[in-house]
Amino acid sequence: MHTVPWVHVVPEQGALPVDLLLPATGRTYVVRLDGREMRDTDAVFLQFYDRLKLPDYFGWNWNALLDCLRDLHWLLPADRYVCIVEAADEVLPDDADARHLLFRTLLRAGRRWSFTRRFDGLDLSRLVIVMSCAPASVPDLREQLHVCWDETVLS
Prior knowledge:
- This protein is α/β, with parallel strands linked by helices.
- It contains 6 helices and 4 strands.
- It is 43% helix and 17% strand.
- Helix 3 packs parallel to helix 5 and helix 5 crosses helix 6.
């Protein structure tokens, strides 16, 4: 998915150039989520809650997840955030609608971090999302993300 520079789909054991993930200076916060553990919506929220150390008032819904992903800077001070979703092709296997909402949420959060400037004119930290999956699933996952992106841009 080349149109969205903050989302990368890679085959398991695949690699991205380090400069796409790590800034030359500053702090980077890396979080790994396990798609195999995200079998339903509650499990998705639990992965993000536990791994990103979301606040206790997290609302356990898609809007609350988006709000928290947009505000990572004050939750976890860093210059860049890298969110790695391992086995991304196994996320929400029986709920295509919820998977679609998750992907749209990640795309919208990434867009927010990529195109927003702070009041003092400095760029906000970047959020990079890496979705790792079985090699055979790469084209399908890229297509799903592309469809979600098209919908996100139009909304």
